Amino acid sequence: MRAWIFALVSSVSCLLAADAVSPKIYKDLSYRPEAVPQTYEAERCKLNLVTPAEGKGFATYVWFYGGSLKAGSKDVASEYCIAIAEAFAREGVAVVTPDYRLNPKVTYPAYVDDAAAAFAWTVRNIAQYGGNPHKVFIGGHSAGGYLAMMVGFDEKLLAPFNLSLSDVAGIAQVSGQVFTHYTVREERGLKRYQTIADEAAPAFYVKRTLPPILSIYADNDMIGRAEENQYLIAMLKSAGHPATSSLRVSERDHASVGHGLRQSDDPAHRAVLNFIQKISEIR
């Protein structure tokens, strides 16, 4: 009997201890409070925030999921972004996962503007949740990586929020489109592989003064995506950008290189965490 009671008490203690270190989750926070209620903008412009269970002054990673700028949700349990947020929060980094408006209900630049608004909300509000507003990073996978780079590269996007690129602590993106996104090209009547790089392309804004950037891609990425990321890395280095780094992950394809960030021992996860920790030390 005593052994049974001891085992029961031990089990309850372990459960309580596990719960004590569980990340804090805040759901459906509006990052465009000015949006007219009951509209598509009001519906989509919300975010989830997952913070470490303890501590103050932590860094925050604004993470945009992929989906060709046509699909995706912060709330679908099967999507990798929920697990990614919890994985980083357990290691001391808060994660913001925004929804954003999608094609075909909107066209460029609506989703890019939403991404900038979500980043701005984070800088302005993260302190009340325990985070450091000077340590707000941005990233994402595929179309999300494209959005992250646009926000972190095009200074015009943050100007309406009285922010600048200096407010972006760093960009850690995975397999993002470097040239004008193919959905934007489709909106303009161009074919998917009719490649251009205009004001809707991260590559258009390459210069030495951009925030630190980590570009991750797969050895078996989608057609042209690894090469686009290699091009970006080469151009940044050629422009004299002092904080360009990259990682090519072996035995991964376009989907799995992003999904792998759910695992704390995944190479991409470790690279992003090290990138955030290293830069946070000097911010």
Any overview of this molecule?
The protein has 283 residues and is of the alpha/beta class. The chain has a single domain (22-280), classed as Alpha/Beta hydrolase fold, catalytic domain (Rossmann fold, 3-Layer(aba) Sandwich), CATH 3.40.50.1820. It has nine helices and eight strands. An eight-stranded mixed beta sheet has the order 1-2-4-3-5-6-7-8, sandwiched between helices. Strand 7, helix 7 and strand 8 (244-253) form a beta-alpha-beta unit. Helix 4 (110-125) crosses helix 5 (143-153). The protein is globular and about 50 Å long.
The biggest sheet, with number of strands, parallel, antiparallel or mixed sense and barrel status, is: 8 strands, mixed
- Rg, Cα atoms, Å: 19 Å
Say how many strands there are: 8
Assigned CATH superfamily: Alpha/Beta hydrolase fold, catalytic domain
Strand content bin: 15-25%
CATH class: Alpha Beta
* Structural category: alpha/beta
End-to-end distance, in Å?
A: 56 Å
Fold-level CATH name: Rossmann fold
Number of domains in the coordinates?
Answer: 1
CATH arch. level architecture: 3-Layer(aba) Sandwich
Low-confidence stretches: 1-20
Write out the strand line-up for the largest beta sheet, numbering strands in chain order.
1-2-4-3-5-6-7-8
Encode the helix/strand succession as letters: HEHEEHEHEHEHEHEHH
Number of helices: 9
Shape: globular
Q: Approximately how much helix is present in the residues?
A: 25-40%
Mean pLDDT: 92
Structural key phrases:
single chain, 283 residues, Rossmann fold, globular, 8-stranded mixed sheet, 36% helix
